[in-house]
Amino acid sequence: MVRVGASTMDAWLGDITTLEVDAIVNAANSRLLGGGGVDGAIHAAAGPKLLEECRTLGGCPTGEARITSGYRLPAAHVIHTVGPIYPRETPERAAELLASCYTRSLDLAAEHGLSSVAFSAISTGVYGYPLAEATAVAVEVTRAWLAGHPEIAMHVTFCCFDERTLEAYEAELAHVANH
Q: Hey, what CATH class is 2-177 in?
């Protein structure tokens, strides 16, 4: 666990739909109507009311975020963010958009008074973002956001769906802790 002021960050291996946190962050598509991977799993676990609410949002541009109720999930809320599709963007633009996903998600969590948030590994699945680079962006942007909001005590979990992802996050968190 890495402490940043009154906040903390850690990595956890498991199913994000089982976490009892204030919000889980969904790696959504721009229509917000469900899909494959973590997006499909979150929609399936939350039930049909999540899709009903998402239909009222009118989608979400890449790099932005929207918040809904969690419905049947243990998490009270779902923050939906749309990460970049890596091959479609230059590496610099992809990093900028990915950073915005984390920033906007944390902004929404703070605006709603949430104190615990779990992120999926945004854009690292079918969107093709290289894991090491995505992990570095995720951890550094989150660390900087938490450091820039010392009045907020938030626990951020990076939820990892496999051992490879967990190892990447643990390495990046250790790097941040030592610098």
A: alpha beta
